[in-house]
Design a protein that fits this description.
The protein is mainly α. It has three helices and two strands. The chain has a domain of 52 residues. It is 45% helix and 5% strand.
Length: 80
C-alpha cells in the first residue's frame, strides 16, 4: 500500500513538470508586445528573466513602479 501511495504521489508531481502554461503578469501584455533596444524581440528566457527580476525586486530603481516601467528600465520597449 505505501508503494502505491508513493507511485501516485510521484505521478501527480510529474504532471506539474509539464505544465508549460505561463501566466501573464498584469499590465505586461504578451512577450510579442515587447522588443529590445536592437529591435529584435526577446527570447522567452530573456523575457521571463526580466519579468522575474522586476517582480522579485532585483531592479532597485523599479521600486513600486508598474511592471511596464520596470521592463522599460531594463531596455525593453513596446513594439510598434
Amino acid at each position: 500500500m505505501p508503494r502505491l501511495a508513493a507511485l501516485i504521489l510521484f505521478g501527480l508531481a510529474g504532471c506539474t513538470l509539464f505544465d508549460t502554461a505561463q501566466e501573464a503578469a498584469p499590465g505586461s501584455g504578451e512577450m510579442s508586445d515587447w522588443q529590445m533596444a536592437s529591435g529584435k524581440a526577446p527570447s522567452r528566457a530573456e523575457y521571463a528573466a526580466m519579468v522575474a527580476a522586476c517582480q522579485a525586486g532585483a531592479v532597485q530603481q523599479a521600486g513600486t513602479k508598474p511592471l511596464d516601467a520596470c521592463l522599460a528600465d531594463l531596455g525593453l520597449k513596446r513594439a510598434p
